[in-house]
Amino acid sequence: MTRVAVIGGGVVGLSVAWQLAASGCAVDLFDDRPGHGASHAAAGMLAPVSETGYGEEELLAVGLDGVAAWPVFAARLEAASGVAVGFRPSGSLLVGHDPDDARALRRHAELLTRHGLAVEQLTSRQARALEPALSPRTTSALLAPGDHSVDNRAVVRALRVAAGRAGVRERAHRVAVDVADGRAVGVRAPDGTRYPADVVVLAAGAWSPDVPGLPAGCVPPVRPIKGQILRLTGPAGLLTRTVRALVGGVPVYLVPRGSGEIVVGATSEDVGLDRRVTAGAVHDLLRAAIAVVPEVAELELAESLARFRPGTPDNAPLIGPGGVEGLLLATGHYRGGVLLAPVTAAAVVALVHGGEVPASVRPLSPRRFAVVEGRT
């Protein structure tokens, strides 16, 4: 039986661990606070269509594979755990308030059409028929029906249950990679305890470069990108789908949950490990959200928090061989950790068992950066 040590208990690490255990591996997962990093703060958007940008064809391709995998992944996860994950296949609504917004939406629609993606331009009346809570100032809108969402915290709860039932052993401490004779041979706990493994999977998100024991040349090019995010609560039904907008230069999204919670986010700050929730960020996000959906002003501000997305030089994840024998990377997912968890897990399972990774994942090999070279 192949022994695997997974470092990192976010949505990616948990998905990898669950799927490896389901494939017959003996899996230990190491994290001192599973699910409390970026996965805890995420909005749970599965939105490759509305988030695609110019020059991001490879990221779009893997994102489309990710969103296509989620209906089956969600059903399997709920069956394995007994936990509902709040999967919503209701699309994203992109809205604008002025002529500049309308032009930006038309350009985005043209980009999506060139990629062959379904998109529908709406009038303000049509947009407000879909979402009556939208501001009367809404002048233009774009419906991206291929986007979905899940409740990220429910997904983490479900993954921990499913992984445990599949035999994954959670170990609540941080570890170092154990390397001997040019090969990762397991991990080592702070007290010196060694956990031998045939394969080590580094899935520690923004903390991946800080994991001790990585040999020179094998430290992944990942940096923390701070995101501040809010959670509001009120009666259910204010919104039925994700709404995204740009308000006075501030991008904002509102992601509804069935419980009445609405997630509002998020900043994107390349400021290192600054854990503060700032008054300016809260003000800007709330101002923008209220401009888009005025009734947001009546909701309770239940939570504000900051976490760190794992960014890479090209904003695409690192999935593949990690520079020495026995080491695999599954990190650097930036804004797409929840979206890409199913395809990342499938790719890692394939690599561990000597199979082929999905075609959309191949360009995401860590070997595209000079700092990570080698084979597994």
Structure in words:
With 376 residues, this protein is α/β, with parallel strands linked by helices. The chain folds into 2 domains: 3-54 and 153-222 and 313-368, FAD/NAD(P)-binding domain (3-Layer(bba) Sandwich), CATH 3.50.50; 88-148 and 224-311, D-Amino Acid Oxidase, subunit A, domain 2 (D-Amino Acid Oxidase, Chain A, domain 2). The chain is built from 9 helices and 19 strands. It has an 8-stranded mixed sheet with strand order 5-6-4-14-15-16-13-17, sandwiched between helices. The protein has a 6-stranded mixed sheet with strand order 8-2-1-12-19-18, with helices on one face. A 3-stranded antiparallel sheet has the order 9-10-11, with no helix packed on it. Strand 1, helix 1 (11-22) and strand 2 (26-30) form a beta-alpha-beta unit. The longest helix has 25 residues, at 57-81. 52% of the residues are buried.
- What is the string of helix and strand elements? EHEHEHHEHEHEEHEEEEEEEEEHEEEH
Percent helix: 25-40%
What is the CATH top level name of the largest domain?
Alpha Beta
Whole-number count of domains: 2
CATH-level-4 superfamily name of the largest domain: FAD/NAD(P)-binding domain
**Secondary-structure content class:** alpha/beta
CATH architecture call of the largest domain: 3-Layer(bba) Sandwich
C-alpha termini separation: 18 Å
